[in-house]
Amino acid sequence: MNFWDYLVNRHQQLLADSYQHASAVFQCMVVATLIGIVIAVVTYRSDWAGNLATTATSTILTIPSLAMIGLLIPLVGLGVAPTVISLTLYGLLPIVRNAIVGLRGVDPTLIDAAKGIGMSRAARLFRVELPLAWPPILTGIRVSTQMLMGIAAIAAYASGPGLGNEIFRGIASLGSANALNQVLAGTLGIIILALLFDAAYVVIGRLTIPRGIRV
Fold it and tell me: Rounded CA gap, 166 and 189, in Å?
């Protein structure tokens, strides 16, 4: 059958795989964002600590995704667990690096002014520093999301959820009638999801970043 007929016949399964793929990436990005911002907040005041955080998360990113998932299978088994752990770890670097850069780039005079009106350190962090560092942090989140969209496909190797299952089934059945359709459907689905997520981040940026800061 041609590609269009394949989509029509398999649309329910493709929609289910797309939902699982998007859900896995979204949930892992939420966790990675929280962990990454905490790491940045703890380390950005110190050069050596910030460099250590960036180096550590960079090292994680150098591990091939298939190897990472393969190493996790004996520890946590197949399915969702290795997918969540690997995606969360891979998503850390852009967030940690951008959050550190953003926090270090806050104008010191604004921090001094906040001190002058009696703000505590926690209040300065949440009301002054993090809001001003939000644009680069959001950029890091966008970059991480695009990376994880592709890496999540490898999770099918460990029986993880998502469109990677469609791609792996097609590769495993190369030469069959629908092999190419399966690979193409999974690949295009991931591309479409990545574009939709990126568009959502653009909207979030417009809603959460004041025009003056965006400029």
Answer: 10
